[in-house]
């Protein structure tokens, strides 16, 4: 059985922003040494706020994990080279990979929006032409949409990257406007008509709406913050469904990445309960129960979610139809290079048809794999 990891990542190489126009060349983000001796990205000309670490732990024993302090030459080439990425997937028994950005997401916070959009376009060209281009049958690079820069600019980039071969689109996890805002209606319409999925990755991209132990803009990362972000899809997906977005744009597909799936049954039970209980006054634009959009319009990716797979074994078809497995290569929670062993435990007791959906068919359907 072919396996697709629906959530992997790159760590951008030093030349990723070199395609920006000449007027911005002197101000592009640059990789440089950090105070801790590792390498990191500077977006303002000053020292990097954090060097490579937990986002590049593939190939490092768990006992040696560290938050930061790695040099670029220490990380595996599969982080930034499409051919090497496929070789690493081969070692893991994984055939396809949907690949999310890394430090490029900080362009959503760049004050000079002309520079920011230019950098996004440079990243998009790199991830499609160079990274995905190394194995277009197996890799799906996700170009970033400049959603904060006016809908005309956003839609122009949609058309541009789809023409270049994009099979999925990335939007920030912490947008200035929530995704149920009418501002996004032209985007949802375009993506529905083009049949190209939109995906966000936990809280990747944008400014946090409130403070907590984490402050991701400043690269302050904590263990409880990592736990909390597994539940970050509840709010945006709930509001999008109840706003009737998928009734107006029935071919639109939205993927929430790295959120696992064990929480999903309680979530959609609660949505359905309140949809019916509050029907007398809510004036809902939805034509049917919220759970009916799951697996057709709404999808999630997960890793070694034993709770979620237990519910799949018990016959929860909604969960099966909307879930995509992932290895999260090369991050610190990655299952690489033991994915096949872990998968065998996860799918034990599941039907062959359900197993195929979660490991391959759902991602193949959404991201247009042959």
Structure, described:
The chain has 370 residues and is α/β, with parallel strands linked by helices. It has a single domain, classed as TIM Barrel, CATH 3.20.20. The chain is built from 13 helices and ten strands. The protein has helices spanning 82-92, 113-131, 151-164, 185-194, 223-228, 234-242, 245-248, 264-277, 279-282, 306-313, 317-322, 339-347, 352-366; strands at residues 4-9, 30-33, 39-42, 96-100, 139-141, 169-170, 198-201, 254-257, 298-302, 323-325. A five-stranded parallel β-sheet has the order 6-7-8-9-10. Helix 3 packs parallel to helix 4. The protein is globular and about 60 Å long. The model has no long low-confidence stretch (mean pLDDT 94).
TL;DR?
This protein has 370 residues and is α/β, with parallel strands linked by helices. The chain has 13 helices and 10 strands.
């Amino acid at each position: 059985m072919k396996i697709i990891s629906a959530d992997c990542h790159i760590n951008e190489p030093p030349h990723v922003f070199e395609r920006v126009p000449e007027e911005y060349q002197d101000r592009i983000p640059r990789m440089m040494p950090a105070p801790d001796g590792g390498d990191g990205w500077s977006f303002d000309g000053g020292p990097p706020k954090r060097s490579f670490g937990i986002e590049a732990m593939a190939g490092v024993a768990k006992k040696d994990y560290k938050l930061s302090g790695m040099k670029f030459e220490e990380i595996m080439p599969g982080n930034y080279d499409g051919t090497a990425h496929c070789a690493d997937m081969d070692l893991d028994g994984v055939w396809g990979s949907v690949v999310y950005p890394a430090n490029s997401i900080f362009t959503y916070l760049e004050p000079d929006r002309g520079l920011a959009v230019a950098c996004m376009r440079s990243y998009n060209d790199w991830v499609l032409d160079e990274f995905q281009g190394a194995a277009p049958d197996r890799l799906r690079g996700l170009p970033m949409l400049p959603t904060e820069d006016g809908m005309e600019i956003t839609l122009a980039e949609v058309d541009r990257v789809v023409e270049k071969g994009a099979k999925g689109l990335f939007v920030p996890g912490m947008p200035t406007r929530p995704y149920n805002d009418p501002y996004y209606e032209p985007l949802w319409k375009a993506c529905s008509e083009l049949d190209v999925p939109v995906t966000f990755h936990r809280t990747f991209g944008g400014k946090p709406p409130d403070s907590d132990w984490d402050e991701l803009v400043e690269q302050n990362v904590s263990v409880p913050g990592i736990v909390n972000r597994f539940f970050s899809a509840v709010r945006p997906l709930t509001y999008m469904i109840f706003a009737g977005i998928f009734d107006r744009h029935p071919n639109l597909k939205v993927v929430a990445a790295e959120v696992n799936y064990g929480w999903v049954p309680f979530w959609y039970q609660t949505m359905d309960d309140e949809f019916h209980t509050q029907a007398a006054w809510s004036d809902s634009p939805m034509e049917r129960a919220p759970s009916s959009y799951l697996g057709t319009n709404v999808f999630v990716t997960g890793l070694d979610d034993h709770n979620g797979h237990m519910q799949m074994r018990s016959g929860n078809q909604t969960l099966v139809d909307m879930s995509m497995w992932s290895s999260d290569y090369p991050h610190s929670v990655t299952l690489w290079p033991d994915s096949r062993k872990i998968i065998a435990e996860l799918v034990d007791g599941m039907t062959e048809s359900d197993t195929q959906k979660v490991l391959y068919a759902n991602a193949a359907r959404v991201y247009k794999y042959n």
